[in-house]
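User: Teach me something about this protein's shape.
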Amino acid sequence: MRFLMVAIAAGACLLGACAQRSAWTVPVQPADEAALARIAPTGRLPATAQPRAYRVSLDLDPRETHFSGYVEIDVEVAAATNGIWLHGDDLDVSRVTATAGGETVEAGWAEILDTGVVWVSFPRRLEARGVTLAIDYTAAFDTGLAGLFRVESQGNWYALAKSESIQARRFLPGFDEPGFKAPFEMAITVPEGMHAIANTPEVSRAAAQPGFETITFAPTRPLSTYLLSTAVGNFDKVERPPLPPNDVRRTEIPLTGYARAGKGEELAFALDLTPEMMRVFEEMLGQPYPYEKLDIIAAPQWPSGATELAAAITYREGRILVGPNTGPSLLRSVKEIHAHEIAHMWFGNLVTPPWWDDLWLKEAFATWSETAVLEIMEPEGNHDLAAVIDGIGAMSLDSLKGVRAVAEPISRNEDVRNAYDAITYSKGQSVIRMIDTYFGPDVLRPALGRYIARYADGEADSARFYSAIGKASGEPAIGRVFESFVTQPGVPLVTAQPMCSGTSAKIEFTQARYRPIGSEITPGGRWAIPVCAAWKDGANSGEVCTLLSAPQRTVDVRGAICPEVVVPNAKGAGYYRFDLPAEYWRALTDNFAALEPREALVSIDSAQAAFNAGAMGGAEYLGLLEASLTHPHGTVLISALNTWDALLLQLGEEAGLAKAVATAALARREAPTELEAQIRLRGFRAASLQEPEARAALVAEADAFLSGTGELSSDLYPYALRAALEEGGTAMFDKVLAAIPRLDNAVFLQAAADSLGSAAAPEDAARALDLIYNGGISQQVSFSLAQSLMNNPAHRDMTWARLTGDFAGFTANVPSQLRRSTPRLARAFCDPAVIPDLEALFAAGSRDLAGHERALEETKEYLTLCAAQRENALAVMGPVLARR
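Assistant: First, the predicted structure itself:
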């Protein structure tokens, strides 16, 4: 903790100043730091001080190690006070003044908590009224890709601000919470010739000290600090025609792209995508794009995939640049993340959650918007299938006993970043999609637009959302469904029991919380679940739907005498797993190739879940997995291959017979027509089935590509590099390392980091570890490289020993926001025996690891479940495979 108390001028009241009551009253004794620490807010700041406006000046030269700033903050104080709580993390503050009622006093600055909670103390008590704080400070550019950081690329230096979630406080004193929205006026002094980017258009440019100029930007709409954008450097600037007016928006919007020098052309795909995507968003919501411009920024390094900085969306290069050899999966990913970030301009930026426990109101809706918008733009693009897979992906984490709820209360700053997980994003979007499907797009989507209009430039929490969306849609049950899913953790398990009697049929639905083998989850749980079951009865088929809010409900199946096939999650729209009587699982398996693709996806997942819960036998599960490989749709095949990979991993060294079953099943199907499925199948044959011909082909392609004599799709990078590193020895390891700077491609860099752990030689694995510790590989992929090494059983013990032996050295080379996730590296052991060592490693704790507790507890539970499920798979599947 650091404390600054500027000398306070004390004196008698001057005659001319006493005629009017002063805003500053009785003198205040400076508070002791220890006393302040006992009362400092660990989470939300008191609501008694509200920022009304910021005026910011920054001097930024990315070539230097430090920067300086000056900020004035207009604050409304609701009650008399001795000071104000706000935020500033590791800032070297030289002076603070406070002006109220025309009188300026010197104030104190004390950073009380390591999370950047600051007490600005006054020499005299301030009456309830407006006050302007003025703060001069300097700070070092961050070294962990957080706050305001700098990076070098090809001899050029760049400075970028990663403000979300609570990182703006690292470069700007202020009220660093989402609910504190205020307009900003920004001026940035930069070296001449460098671009400077902020949230609004540039309005003036003036000479500063020799070799520098000051760029002033237009005032913003009310913004949260986490949305602040600052980027400076020798960027390529790519100007495009403005976004034209339409039926929703009357004005043009300037559209500009920025990338590091030499990479501007690779923004063309995203920029070309933007006008139509923006039009669809505006028409779907009935609300215009809310800002004066739109900048698309490809950051030379960025700790996450992208960040929705208002009107200046900033991406990691590998998520937005499209260059040569770009495969179809990467193109799909670019479309999805671009739609996600544009959605944030309304969900989060214009209407903002007041605190981080309502993060889902922006992240879940932005994730849902990916599919909602891309389905309109590309009806045949299978984006609905991607949404189903995304929701299924969240269920693995949501099957833990200790998992957080979507809207989990957050009481500490250290836990804020933990809300950025699959529960918030993927479970959240799946719940929205379920409601959108059940009640209908014509109900939910117009209501969303009215909700946005009502709270524009303000904030809204979950309670306001439930109320507003219920009233706007005319469907009060919508709020009930949302609340039941976002306020409690866990995956609902819906058991469907078809019942036939004479000429009528019914289905009895029962709900409970899903519980895998080894779990201590308490039975029970109740949701308001929109359940729809698809059925087939001879030539007849249909759906039966109900809102399952009781533990059990029986519904009539109109049009059916006795359904022969039932899929209790029609169109894969529901966020739940299902179970069936054994005969209905067999019928589903027999008819698998004819299943609607979304229903095939959820059937695979529910079967896997039943097997991992001990509710499905080995023969039944193996039969369904065989059938899944014959489904004609490429996306279903990809999901089936991923599920087979999970089973092979559970079986470990005993997986040989299972591989033979998979090989035979694949031989019975026609080759997929979709390129994404073809690529995934090649990878499965080479990596999972270890087919010599498939491996040799990938190794040859990788070798030619690395030698500069051949091409390789970016979607094949992971499979080809792993095969090449496993087969090619140290010479291939050296080729991959040499290709990283030569190709200068972020997608290849990520694939290399994900693959280097596959190297066969222990010496090469040790060299890969050295890359993390000596900074020989980009910090943004260092965590991925560590995971790659941990995932290789041959290098796991060596890697773990090195990481735990110099854990501080490792975390220093990992992006700040990923350090709390380091316990998850131990998941590779799939053995609870490592838990004592894991607990000892994190027992001391440190500021750099703040918030790691959730990842640690989840990892401990995961290790127990993983071992139990592996034991079950070996015991149950082993005899079945032996009989085959």
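Now, about its shape. Residues 492-597 form a domain with the Immunoglobulin-like fold (CATH 2.60.40.1910). The chain has a mean pLDDT of 96. If you'd like, I can walk through any region in more detail.
User: That's plenty for now, thanks!
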